[in-house]
Design goal:
This protein is of the alpha+beta class. It has helices at 39-53, 72-79, 84-101, 159-163, 211-217, 226-242, 248-264, 272-279, 282-294, 310-313, 330-336, and strands spanning 7-16, 60-64, 110-119, 128-137, 144-146, 153-155, 170-177, 192-197, 201-202, 207-208, 220-221, 269-270, 302-303, 315-320, 324-329, 337-344, 350-358. The strands form six sheets. Strands 1-3-4-7-8-2-11 form a seven-stranded antiparallel beta sheet, with helices on both faces. Helix 6 (226-242) packs antiparallel against helix 7 and helix 8 (272-279) runs antiparallel to helix 9. The protein is elongated, with a radius of gyration of 27 Å. The two termini are 49 Å apart.
C-alpha cells in the first residue's frame, strides 16, 4: 500500500498490562488527553507508520470478519468522525479489547497508540482516511515521556532502535478508507482496506503467527488469496507426488512438470483438475483432487500468483564443457552443492577443472 502525504490528526496513548498470575485481566490505564508530539518525534512516528504498513513493508492485507457494534472494526469506523472526548473513549475501548484478546499470561503489556489521519494527496479533497493502532511492548523504543514544563509527551527513542529496524518491537494495523467503493452496503470490507504488520508476519510464506492480534482483537481473517492458494497448490502437490507408489524417476518427472506448469503456463490461472488430467491416470486424479480439497483449496480454478514460491521455481543450471550440465532448484543448489576450481592436478600440471561436492546420495535413473 502506498502511503504518501501522510498527515496525523489525533493520537491517543493508553497502556495495557500483562495478565495477573491467576490469568485475570488488569484494567488498562486510560489517558485523558491527546498526545502532543514534538515536530521531530511526529516525523519519526509517521515514518514508523510508513515503514510498518507501506509498499516496502511486510504488511499483509486481511478482510474484516467480526462486524458487531462492539467489535474492534466497528470501533475503528466510529473513530473516523469522533470528536475529542469520544475519540479518547473509543480508543480506550479499543485498548481494552486488545487487553481482553491477550489471554495468555506470558503476553507482554505495552502502550497502545491509536491514531487518525489522512493520506494519498496534498489536496484535502482527495485524501483518504487512515485509522491505525500500534501496540509497542513496554520495554521497546517507545516510552511515555512528559516534559514537566510543557506537558508535551514525546517518544524517547533508544539509540539502537533508531539505527536498526524495530519491527520486532511492535504490532501495527491500519484501516484505510476505500474511495469510491463499487459496492455500498453495511459490509465494512467495502469501506476499509485492512493492513497488518507484525514481526511474526512472514511475507515469504504469507502467515501471521500472532493470531490473537489479527483475529481475536482486530476481528480479521485471511482473504481468499491467490498467492496463498498458489503456494498451497504447489506444496500439497509435492507432498502428494512424494507419497505415490512410483519410481523416483517418475516422481522427478512429475515434480518437473509441476514447476513447468507454474512457471511457463501463460493462462494466468491454476486448474487442479486440468493439471491432474494431464499428468495422472484416472484413479490417481480422483485421489489428487480429494487430497487438494482437504487442504482447503478451492475446487474451481483460481488466479495464479507465484510471489510466495518464486525462489522455489527457479532452477540453477551449471554447464561443464559441451555435454555435462548440473541443474537443481536454486534453494537446494545453495544448500547441497559445493563447487570448487582445481588449477593443479596431482602431478603438478596446470589444469582448469571443477570439483563438485553434492551433499546427497547418488540415485541411478
Amino acid at each position: 500500500m502506498q502511503i504518501v502525504h501522510l498527515n496525523i490528526e489525533k493520537i491517543c496513548i493508553h497502556q495495557i498490562f500483562q495478565r495477573n498470575h491467576d490469568g485475570s485481566k488488569k484494567t488498562p490505564e486510560k489517558s485523558s488527553d491527546f498526545v502532543n508530539f514534538s515536530p521531530s518525534a511526529m516525523e519519526t512516528f509517521k515514518q514508523r507508520v510508513i515503514d510498518a504498513l507501506g509498499s516496502q513493508s511486510k504488511a499483509i492485507e486481511m478482510m474484516i470478519v467480526n462486524q458487531a457494534a462492539t467489535d474492534t472494526p466497528s470501533l475503528f469506523t466510529s473513530l473516523k468522525t469522533a470528536l475529542d472526548n469520544e475519540f479518547i473513549n473509543i480508543s480506550y475501548k479499543i485498548a481494552d479489547n486488545l487487553a481482553e484478546a491477550q489471554k495468555r499470561k506470558n503476553l507482554q503489556g505495552g502502550i497502545v497508540v491509536v491514531f487518525r489521519g489522512t493520506f494519498g494527496s496534498p489536496d484535502a479533497k482527495k485524501t483518504r482516511a487512515i485509522i491505525g493502532i500500534i501496540k509497542a511492548d513496554i520495554y521497546s523504543a517507545y516510552q511515555k515521556i512528559t516534559d514537566p514544563q510543557t506537558k508535551e509527551i514525546s517518544l524517547n527513542y533508544v539509540k539502537e532502535a533508531l539505527l536498526t529496524p524495530s519491527t520486532k518491537l511492535f504490532k501495527t494495523a491500519a484501516f484505510t478508507e476505500i474511495k469510491n467503493p463499487t459496492i455500498i452496503n453495511d459490509n465494512l470490507n467495502n469501506t476499509w482496506q485492512v493492513s497488518i504488520s507484525d514481526h511474526q508476519i512472514s511475507q515469504a510464506d504469507g502467515k501471521v503467527a500472532a493470531q490473537y492480534f489479527y483475529e481475536k482483537f482486530l476481528g480479521c481473517g485471511y482473504p481468499e488469496s491467490s498467492a496463498r492458494n498458489t503456494k498451497t497448490f504447489y506444496e500439497q502437490t509435492l507432498i502428494f507426488i512424494k507419497q505415490l507408489d512410483i519410481s523416483n524417476e517418475e516422481k522427478h518427472e512429475l515434480n518437473s512438470a509441476l514447476t513447468c506448469y507454474l512457471k511457463l503456463d501463460k493462462s494466468g490461472v491454476i486448474d487442479p483438475n486440468k493439471f491432474a488430467q494431464s499428468y495422472f491416470d484416472a484413479n490417481t486424479t480422483d485421489e489428487y483432487t480429494s487430497f487438494l480439497a482437504e487442504s482447503g483449496l478451492p475446487k474451481t480454478s483460481f488466479a495464479k500468483d507465484t510471489q510466495y514460491i518464486i525462489s522455489k521455481l527457479k532452477l540453477q543450471k551449471v554447464s561443464f564443457g559441451k555435454s555435462i550440465k548440473l541443474t537443481a532448484p536454486a534453494e537446494q543448489f545453495k544448500k547441497l552443492v559445493i563447487i570448487e576450481p582445481i588449477e593443479i592436478d596431482n602431478d603438478g600440471n596446470n589444469v582448469n577443472w571443477t570439483k563438485i561436492l553434492i551433499k546427497e546420495k547418488m540415485t541411478i535413473s
